Amino acid sequence: MSPWLNSPVAIGVGTREVVVGARTPWLSRLRKPAPAGEPVSVAIAEDRWCTEAGVLDALHAALATPPTNQPTTPANGAAEVDQASMQARSACVVLDDFWGSHAILRGDFRTLRPRELEEIVLAHFTDTYGIDSESLRVCFSVQRGGHTLFASAMSRALLDGIYEASAAEQVGISRLSLCLPEMLNRLGGAADGAAEALLLFVEDELLQAVMIEQNRWAAYDAQRLFPGDAGDASRLAELAEQLFERSATRANAKREDCKLYLFGIETELAPFEARFAAAVPLAQPVIGGSPAHRLMEYAQ
């Protein structure tokens, strides 16, 4: 039985590590929080990095490992713990975007039914990546105005494995997401009013861009990062320029007129300002810790 049963948990699923920590429910944040143990981190063996089998084994191990410095429960509180565990077997999971794919599709989606939208999304991912649609699970959201659709796809086998691993430890999953939607949610209205802008999301191994045109999402693109790229502002600015060129949908779009909003790291802005109309750093995630720890923070 999982030692995490007496509290909801946040799970960060990276490419080399899985991290599980206690999650504070919204109502509990209004009161003084109960002491919680330190997050449990389980590294994936190097020869199994970036593999579904490696992730699932690490998830099993993390959920089965008691958090360090966890306060002991008095014997006379056993009944309360049992009752709580029956009510709070939930986890929020955020995965590295390595484990999925995203797209922004353009068209007139205003009158289409969910099943028709799902067929369009599946067709896009299968045509783009040559993957059998039966092996994918997709989610999507029609954006304001009904002419753009944000979509994500993940391996059905990986998702099923995550649910099965959690169920085996008697921990249910209440929410599961890739990282990019979580980062977009954190932006709020930071880029509202931007007629044309490039949202740039920097993770340790992935650079992602969302193009905004006429105050609406217009396109998505991504670029894998090599070791050292994330810490090199000049290299990131060069890649951002390439992402703009690939993402701009208007024939007369000019990089020099486009604002760039930078999210995910603290870096030198001058190389970006030299290429774009302006470079605006946005609110940063919790600094420190491994990529999987930061994913766990997004799951809070």
The CATH topology annotation of the domain at 9-97 and 160-177 and 292-298 reads as Nucleotidyltransferase, domain 5
Rg (C-alpha, Å): 21 Å
Helix/strand class: alpha/beta
Instruction: Give me the number of helical elements.
Output: 8
Shape: globular
Alpha carbon gap, first and last residue: 23 Å
- Reading the helices and strands in chain order gives EEEHHEEHEEHEHEEEHEHEH
Q: Spatial order of the strands in the main sheet?
A: 3-2-1-4-8
Average pLDDT rating:
86
Number of strands: 13
User: Which regions are unreliable across 5 or more consecutive residues at pLDDT < 50?
Assistant: 72-88
Helix content: 25-40%
| Major sheet attributes | 5 strands, mixed
Written account of the structure:
The longest helix has 16 residues, at about 115-130. The protein contains eight helices and 13 strands. Helix 1 (about 50-65) runs parallel beside helix 4. Among the domains are: about 10-95 and about 160-175 and about 290-300, 2-Layer Sandwich (Nucleotidyltransferase, domain 5); about 190-280, Nucleotidyltransferase, domain 5. Strands 3-2-1-4-8 form a five-stranded mixed beta sheet. Mean pLDDT is about 85; it is low at about 70-90. Strand 10 (about 205-215) and strand 11 (about 215-225) form a beta hairpin. It is of the alpha/beta class and about 300 residues long.
